Hints:
The chain is mainly alpha-helical. It has helices at 2-19, 22-26, 28-33, 38-65, 71-78, 81-114, 118-133, 136-163, 178-203, 210-237, 247-255, 260-286, 292-305, 311-337.
Amino acid sequence: MIKSMIHILSIALIYCGTVFGAGFASGQEIVSFFSSHFLWGVVLSVFVGFLFSFFGYAVCSKAKEFGLNSAKEYFGFLFPKAVSGLLHFICMAFLVVSFCIMIAGCGTLFKEQFSLRPMIGSLFSLVICYKIIKNRVGGLARFNAVITPFMFLGVVALCCVVLTRTDVDFSLLEQGRPHKAAFSGALYLSYNLVSAAAVLAPSAAIAKSKRQAGLGGALGGILVAVPLVLLSLVLTLFPAFHTEQLPFFALICAMHPKLKLACAGLLYCAMLTTAASSGVSVLARVKPKFTGKYAAVLCAAAFAASFVPFDVLVKTMYSAFGVCGLVLILGIVKSILRKQ
């Protein structure tokens, strides 16, 4: 029973850690996709949170049932060869870019918080990522078992600190436009689901049964939903911070300057979990039972690439990822409906 719970929780924490990227923890994604739509955005965040849980269950249970141990195998199960090949290529390209961007972001955070050269922060982060990635899914599970609860509880606690202030004016909630909110929510779910599916497919192997895998995916979706709804509500109530590059970070620092370091720690952990998840997913595709040498090559390439400006590339990849995610959602729904 205890081992079963550990397997379920391991998958859930990997799922949560994958979605819980720097954009999520900083509030940047939340403002773009939810809070900018005010009350409708908050309502939609509840529905999107439910869908994260639903699709998490669907991906993990199917991956375990049919022995789909990589993103390529999972996409191949859902789609014809040509479609799955294109989807997989874009997915891997995005994960590589995501890995490099997170490492670069870690370097920038070290510069801003400790006045150190970005290269030092990037190197330090790559050493941690190397130790995680070389141990494949097992290493990722152990890392997320420590870091993800800290991130989850940290964000929830900070949101509660803001919401319990006596000067919070809930009348600031406005209606917004439901059709625009719905489109934003669908796009957010779709591009996160592609990267999550790439990580969940191999992670489902942790479970000993289809039921365990499915419950792990469902629980992971719930762990994503709670901070998603809280962040949406908090940032909707403080529209003055919507223009900040890191809205939630700026809000907490303005209200409680002493919590600045805690926020920086959350951001750093979020970037590390995203980088580690991306790295494991990419190498699992290159060689399912990859060794430390492959992890070292990936980390070295990421260090070199972290100095390159990725602005245009990231914008292009996010757009492509959103479209691929919508296709993936259709494929998952089809796999649920068809009889195997």
